[in-house]
């Protein structure tokens, strides 16, 4: 059984920070490139960041480059997203998944709200 659970979202003021976590088990996560995606109201889900399965290579969407950091701990089956200098445009529901994504791995996501 595949279990994906995102956490760490919340309400933060613009310029603030949050650290998102994703617990993933039951799938091929530890040998897969993993990423974060987000979906804002009225918009399509978009890619945010990816880390390779070893954890030594990352890539970011231009909109978050220099502000967000993706990391993983394969021993704990955990994926993280450190978000700094948050902007109102970063407000969305954040999801973790493999990259490319796997439909059956979408979890409930975690809500990030940024006040201006």
Which features would summarize this protein structure in a list?
six-stranded mixed sheet, four-stranded antiparallel sheet, 0% helix, mainly beta, 116 residues
Please, could you describe this protein's structure?
This protein has strands at residues 3-7, 10-13, 18-25, 34-39, 46-51, 58-60, 68-73, 78-83, 92-98, 110-115. With 116 residues, it is mainly β. It has a six-stranded mixed β-sheet, with no helix packed on it. The mean pLDDT is 95.
Q: How many individual helices? A: 0
Radius of gyration: 13 Å
What is the N-to-C succession of helices and strands?
A: EEEEEEEEEE
Q: What class would the helix/strand composition place it in?
A: mainly beta
Total strands: the figure is 10
Biggest β-sheet: strands ordered side by side in the sheet: 2-10-9-4-5-6
Distance between the termini: 40 Å
Residue-averaged pLDDT: 95
Question: How can the largest sheet be summarized?
Answer: 6 strands, mixed
Binned strand content: over 45%
Morphology: globular
Low-confidence stretches: none
Q: Give helix % range.
A: under 10%
Compact description:
This protein is mostly beta strands and 116 residues long.
Write the layout of secondary structure elements.
Elements: E1 3-7, E2 10-13, E3 18-25, E4 34-39, E5 46-51, E6 58-60, E7 68-73, E8 78-83, E9 92-98, E10 110-115
Parallel strand pairs: 2-10
Antiparallel strand pairs: 1-3, 3-8, 4-5, 4-9, 5-6, 7-8, 9-10
